Amino acid sequence: MSPSKPYLRIATEEAFAPPEMIRIYQKILAGSDVDPGFKGLMGFYISSPSERAQHIMRCLQDLDQIRLAHMDEAGIDHQVLALTAPGVQIMDKATAVSFARVANDFLADAVRRHPTRFTGMISLPVQDPQEAAKEIERGVTRLGMHSVVINSHTHGEYLSDPKFWDIFAAAEQHGTPIYLHPNSLPRNMLEPFQECGLDGAIYGFGVETGLHALRIITAGVFDRFPKLQMIIGHMGEALPFWSYRLDYMHQATVRSKRYDSIKPIHKKPSDYLRENFYITNSGVAWEPAIKFTQSIVGVDRVLYAMDYPYQYAAEEVQLLDRMDMSAEDKKKFFQTNAQKVFGISAL
Description:
The chain is of the alpha/beta class.
């Protein structure tokens, strides 16, 4: 922190991948009937000789010199680290349960090496909700982590299904917000996006993850777990911009009794966005979008993120430094909101 920059820059959606996980991915990709979304996304990054792919794979696996140098070059004081998508969620249940522990221990070691530079999110074997709940407890009580990352769907299944709600119960009990991060599109959604090159971060990720968040809202998850907090990136996966229509059409759909899956909930969808979600600007270094989202959910619920290494653009940091925003609100955006949400004290 300096007089010219009276805040720290905490980036809150920054990915990593243990080398051992990449080896597991290679084995999955060599098998039969590979998930096409996973093959098209992670299969590309692992095998492509392109400069972008090589940069991403190199940076994902480094939690020391390369990453710290990039942080220093861009002026990032602290990163909140999450296991890159799809994490353990592409694995079979037994492997997911065992490797989630390995990945979380790997991350905890990195945080211990660089306590003023890194904070970690707990990765979960969503395939086994009971074991996932146990890993939340272990992550909090033994590893000192205070948030969770879930990479959207798990083999095409969504957290709106009550069979996964042990995860929500554990997160609420331990006060660990859940970062709902994009994943490659599920089989039954992929083709119309992939055939035109729009399945990834350009559009498909936001559509699928926004859908997932909205499914959680309309399923009544926050009525059952009112203290549960979630985080969504990329300027809320567009949900704040849709909030008026979501409120109107949710009410209209309930009245129409068209779907058994749409029942009355206690509040409007936009109320849950304001009360149960934090939103990061990951990948969206755009002042109008940031300010609009602050106007919808409040300045206390919008946080900075870079989306490293998938989006590493040092000039975006200075662009956001120059936002026409009060010093108090800018410090909330870059620093203090993240400290509160992720339990960051070692700075």
